[in-house]
Task: structure prediction
Amino acid sequence: MSGLIKISPSILSADFSKLGSEVISLEKAGADYIHIDVMDGHFVPNLTIGPEVIKKLRPLTEKVFDVHLMISPVDNFIKDFADAGADIITFHPEATSDVSKTIKLIRERNKKVGISLKPKSKVELIEDYLDKIDLVLIMSVEPGFGGQKFMPEVLEKTKIIRDLIDKKNLKVDLEIDGGINFENCSRVKDAGVNILVSGSTIFKENKGDLKKNIEILRNS
Ligand code: DX5
Ligand code: ZN
Result:
């Protein structure tokens, strides 16, 4: 599995006063995707960035913008994030009254569709949509903040979703987000994850050596 592992650094741990150069540094350091956490102070108790910032970052890199929307209701903003340059748009099923409609809104803009499950959200919430989406994002912390402790109990759900994807022979990526570090990264790969999001580990370990930290997460 490890040959197919992608690393999606979360810019939530970057220096927001120089976000542009941070994104360029991540590209140089070998990031596969750029994970962008969008929070509204309502769906989660924190505020981050909106489409305007993404639009300004877009010309700086060709890397995939992996946009994680923690906003509710989500539908009103899909167009803005698509136009701003998101490549993957991931939403939480609890943030919409009609999951199929939200999927359709993202598809109409020719963007990849992701659905995210909070630590306590059940597999059943996404099961019926698996063949209509491109990615499942497992939250291994309560969404809202970087730097929290990994919740190992989500691995059981991760394995179940990996089995469903494989059984149905689907081309759905399985991504994990929250508290990923050098110690747990091999465990999450064993559970079937193929994309790892990481904020604090990538920006803070080894004195912020992005390249080294990305390599360790990818290869261990
Ligand atoms: C939390 C965010 C995560 C977070 C990851 O709501 O979705 O992407 O920034 O940061 P770390 O790796 O520090 O847990
Ligand atoms: Zn995220």
Remarks:
- The pocket of zinc ion (ligand 2) is lined by residues 10, 35, 37, 68, 177, 197 (CB under 6 Å).
- Strands lie at 6-9, 33-39, 64-70, 88-91, 112-117, 135-139, 173-177, 195-198.
- DSSP finds nine helices and eight strands in the chain.
